[in-house]
Design goal:
The protein is mainly beta. It has 1 helix and 14 strands.
Length: about 200
């Protein structure tokens, strides 16, 4: 009887070990560039196919629908980069991390897309100091907004269109929306002011 129990224990031990390795997540994304997005305690991280955590869980990894052409509700790596967000004065600014979790493009854009063949779309904000209010001792700030193509270093490759003024007060702020999308290598579809579509090409 004793020998039978010992044999039974060794027979089921691999299954016990396997069950201990199973981790329950709130959500799981798709495999993208050898990494899988997983959600735990309301934060996202990335694991590899062996369930090893590669990027620790963070609350700044973006999962929502941030551009028209992305309907997925989980983070993705594209061209080695994943979108993150940072709030400044209650306004969200977007940037990118690499596959080690290091910030390579600091959060500075009001909206961004995933990268495609080395390029992404971004809503750029240009802040200008026009002077100083002598009574309040505060800077008088003016903003310009435009949509642009950026490279994997965050540099502006081509300006696509100006964007109407956005209120930068948190209570009035609305995230800028765009229909622009990549339709091929170095080629985009961009909607003009007359709501007509134009094909825009750009050089590397």
């Amino acid at each position: 009887m004793k020998s039978t129990l010992i044999l039974l224990f060794f027979a089921i031990m691999p299954f016990l070990a396997f069950s201990q390795d199973i981790v329950a997540y709130e959500a799981i994304g798709e495999l993208s560039e050898d990494l899988i997005a997983v959600k735990k305690n309301s934060s996202w991280g990335f694991i590899d196919s062996n369930n090893k955590v590669i990027i620790n869980f963070k609350d700044n990894i973006v999962s929502e629908n941030y551009w028209m052409d992305n309907e997925k509700k989980y983070p993705l790596f594209k061209n080695g980069l994943c979108i993150i967000v940072e709030y400044k004065d209650d306004i969200p600014y977007y940037g990118y991390i690499n596959k080690t979790g290091t910030i390579v493009i600091k959060p500075q854009f009001l909206n961004v897309s995933n990268f495609n063949n080395g390029y992404a779309l971004a809503t750029v904000i240009n802040k200008r100091v026009k002077g100083v209010n002598q009574y309040l001792n505060k800077e008088i700030i003016s903003y310009d907004f435009f949509e642009a193509i950026i490279d994997t270093k965050g540099g502006i490759v081509k300006v696509l269109r100006d964007i109407p003024y956005l209120y930068m007060r948190p209570k009035d702020y609305e995230k800028p929306y765009s229909n622009s999308r990549f339709i091929g290598e170095n080629m985009l579809a961009v909607q003009n002011k007359a709501s007509k579509w134009e094909i825009v090409s750009f050089n590397k």
